Amino acid sequence: MQTHQYDVVIVGAGGAGMRAALESSGQVRTAVISKLYPTRSHTGAAQGGMCAALANVEEDNWEWHTFDTVKGGDYLVDQDAAEVMAKEAIEAVLDLERMGLPFNRTPEGKIDQRRFGGHTRNHGEAAVRRACYAADRTGHMILQTLYQNCIKQDVEFFNEFYVLDLIVDHDLSAGHVPDGETVNATGVVAYDLATGEIHIFQAKAIIFATGGAGKIFKTTSNAHTLTGDGMALAFRRGLPLEDMEFFQFHPTGLAGLGILLSEAARGEGGILRNGEGERFMERYAPTIKDLAPRDIVARSMANEVREGRGAGPNKDYVLLDLTHLEPAHIDAKLPDITEFARTYLGIEPYTEPIPVYPTAHYAMGGIPTNIVGEVLRNDTDIVNGLYAAGEVACVSVHGSNRLGTNSLLDINVFGKRAGRAAAAYAKTAEFRELPENAADRTIAQLEEMRERPDGERVSDVRTALQVTMDANAQVFRTHESLVQATDDIRALQARFKNVSVQDKGRMFNTDLLEALELGFLLDIAETVVLGALNRKESRGGHFREDFPDRDDANYMRHTMAYRRPLDGSEEATALAEASQGDITPENAFTHVSDFENYKVVLGSKPVVMTRYEPMERKY
Ligand SMILES: Cc1cc2nc3c(=O)[nH]c(=O)nc-3n(C[C@H](O)[C@H](O)[C@H](O)COP(=O)(O)OP(=O)(O)OC[C@H]3O[C@@H](n4cnc5c(N)ncnc54)[C@H](O)[C@@H]3O)c2cc1C
């Protein structure tokens, strides 16, 4: 076992992690730990763009961007956070430009901008060109640019190191914090894939930037590595997860595969058609049609299929039509995604429409933070020295539905903020002592898994999880479907206790790591379905067929899921009540779910409103 000491440790080398590293490494000793080689992070798969109200090609301003974000998130957005993001967007794009990012340009040489879903002029009048882009490889360019700048700045990377535990001085999953005491994050435990060796990193400040959790679903645009590690590690230490029921289903995944075709295809003029050739979005969103936000488009597509107007032999998808666009335009603006259609479906997008269907894409929820990036342990108190940014976090700028191009923006704005805040904190803080046995839990878990004789296969349990999530917690949800998913997850948690790995070795044992990642997926899926079961309304990405309307009176609040000990039931109930704010007991989120050795308690947190009153959401 090796131990290391750094002022700031960043877990994750995607856009959020590396943007944070650029801020903190110039000021204090910083290490970045990543289970992937940095440039393999999912940020590199992002296609369409990163928005900012630069007004380079059309009139625009950050206030319209804030409004669109709040409305797009169906008013569950914390408006102070959305304001920060929209204002700082402009600087965030310019930062990247100065670092050398090759954005597409207008003929005059300015950064070009294109349309994207839900981004409008003057509070919904018409679609506006707000997304800055580099063809359909924007994320690739961001990731490469950030990495090159990290290298230039001598950032220290620990690549192919898996963080498997967060060290805190009070483990909230085991009980409550004595009154007046603070909770402090003191380090992380990591596993070196190459050698199987355990490393302890002691740090004054830790930033989680571990990305999303799309692999809880079968049909997803997400990479295999998006297994919700950071969320699960925080949750297992008793920290809350916020708004986990809100998962985004992107309208245009390649049918049957889930591989993403960017919304930029519609931003550049692509049209969705049903099996009868009809441009059906005209019926669902008469003003901005195919460029309505993703939740609305995904639901409309699923509805067309359900009502028998799907395309193809089984009428189980719709079509993305680019055939009216000039081939030269397609080649210049959408080269990668059209190549995906050719490679994976054998479709020629110049002349044939592309079969598409919604695919699980983005976690709106995550580890709750304030606008500085500090992690919250309840409605108001922070964990000293712990920060989160990017898809793993919930600030909440996306509310119940994220607008396209707002995530590449989020990772840059809040990655930068978290990096700055962590460095500032580390400058004033002292290292805190680590417990003697800091790595014992992780070592025991690894050894047990490795030594277990024949048992369940990881892939069987994972597939069963993904199948139930696709069937029961996707675009349409009901009480019955969610109860089914909950029961299935419980049964799978039990089976997980019995999984064994074939590879018993220590070097490059990816088998072993996949088993641990499955554990994270199960924990995350559980918070998604419990939150969805409890939220008896429809809002943004969460649609309950049995409660099809938004219910602001009862549900205009964030969900907070906590893991608590089973025997602490009184405390757990008190916690649920204490986190209600001014909500009456009748409305309280007190759904408590007992698993074998812990329970999940759902509390709530008020939504921050500044200037926008909730309205009905029409486009
Ligand atoms: C196909 C696709 C296209 C997209 N297109 C767009 C777009 O055009 N515009 C937009 O705004 N958004 C887009 N998104 C969303 C956006 O790309 C992501 O939300 C964002 O890039 C996430 O960045 P991140 O830094 O939070 O995480 P990631 O880039 O996913 O990085 C996560 C990092 O965490 C590390 N990590 C994870 N677990 C561990 C662990 N246990 N130990 C150590 N390290 C760990 C990984 O190694 C990785 O470096 C797209 C997403 C997908 C999937």
UniProtKB/TrEMBL annotation:
Its EC number(s): 1.3.5.1
Cofactor detail note: Flavinylated by SdhE, about 5% flavinylation occurs in the absence of SdhE.
One Pfam short name: FAD_binding_2
Start and end residues of each Fumarate reductase/succinate dehydrogenase flavoprotein-like C-terminal domain: 462-619
GO biological process, one term: electron transport chain
Record keyword Membrane present: yes
Gene Ontology molecular function, alphabetical: electron transfer activity; flavin adenine dinucleotide binding; steroid dehydrogenase activity, acting on the CH-CH group of donors; succinate dehydrogenase (quinone) activity
Family: Belongs to the FAD-dependent oxidoreductase 2 family. FRD/SDH subfamily.
Name listed for the protein in its UniProt record: Succinate dehydrogenase flavoprotein subunit
Organism of derivation: Sanguibacter gelidistatuariae
Upper lineage: Bacteria, Bacillati, Actinomycetota, Actinomycetes, Micrococcales
